[in-house]
Amino acid sequence: MRILGIDSSGLVASCALLEEDVLLGEYTTNFKKTHSETLMPMIDTLLTQLGAPKSSIDYVAVAEGPGSFTGLRIGAATAKGICKALSIPLIPVPTLDAMAYNLWGARDLVCPIMDARRDQTYTAVYAFGNGGFDRKYGPAAVAITELAEQLNAYAQAVVFTGDGIDKFKEELKTLLRVGFSFAPANQNRQRAGSVAACGRELLREGKAMKGDEFAPNYYRLSQAERERMKKEGEAK
Question: Mind listing the pLDDT tens digit for each residue in 203-230?
Fold first, then answer.
């Protein structure tokens, strides 16, 4: 069984091919280029290098959100297009769950933080144990002060991952009253290998669906939608 993993939920663009429990290959870039320009060429290059025709893919696992509205739409369109062309199912994978997979087995709490703009972070809190992980909080879009309060209440050490580290690191150092650390460079961004691995577990739980049934989970309204609702409210 082969699962193609895709993540374009942030600045990172990443694709990977998983065969059973073996990661055959992964192609990840963290550069300010439009995912619509890079994602399909990356997938084609990865599959070519692996000598794996598209017809050998059994499932596509894609990061469903939260994340960049544009990035999520591009990932969704790419995944749905492949699923439709190959007549294969799609596995939606929560972005934050996949990011927590980067730190599988951590003794501390794991807290992905993504820059959600407007001084907020997309976040969740996980605890690993008994061969799996438990989501203790989230997913949510909250102010970093609210997240810090939640983490202080757990009274456990925590390790952070995600691009929110760049924005909130100094503030967290001030707010936290528990032990904390920040994941190193090879574990602090989205990775399609983690999306595929997480997707494999979700597949066992029967979470696959038809590609045309999938829609990204944004967790909050886009700026355009907020502005439209504000104008509609003012017009009433």
Answer: 999 999 999 999 999 986 444 443 443 4
Same domain for 161 and 139:
yes
CA proximity to 98, closest of 130, 64, 140: 64
Burial classification of residue 135, based on how many CB atoms lie within 10 Å of its CB (0-12 exposed, 13-18 middle, 19 or more buried): middle
54 shares a domain with 171: no
Q: State the pTM of this model.
A: 0.91
Cα end-to-end span (Å), the chain: 55
What is the residue range of 32's domain? 2-96+190-228
Cα distance between residue 226 and residue 228, in whole Å: 5
Same domain, 80 and 133: no
Half-sphere exposure in the Cβ direction for 30 (13 Å, CA) = 10
Asked whether residue 139 is assigned to any structural domain, the reply reads yes
Stretch 54-79: mean pLDDT: 97
- Partners of 28 in the beta sheet? 14
Confidence of residue 46 (pLDDT cuts 50, 70, 90): very high
- Show Cβ contacts of residue 162 under 8 Å, excluding neighbours closer than 6 positions: 99, 112, 113, 114, 188, 189
User: Pairing mode, if any, of strands 59-65 and 2-7?
Assistant: parallel
**Sheet of 132-143, strands arranged across:** 132-143, 120-129, 109-117, 158-161, 180-182
Residue 16 placed within a domain: yes
Same domain for 7 and 86:
yes
Name which of 114, 115, 112 is nearest 124 in CA terms.
Answer: 112
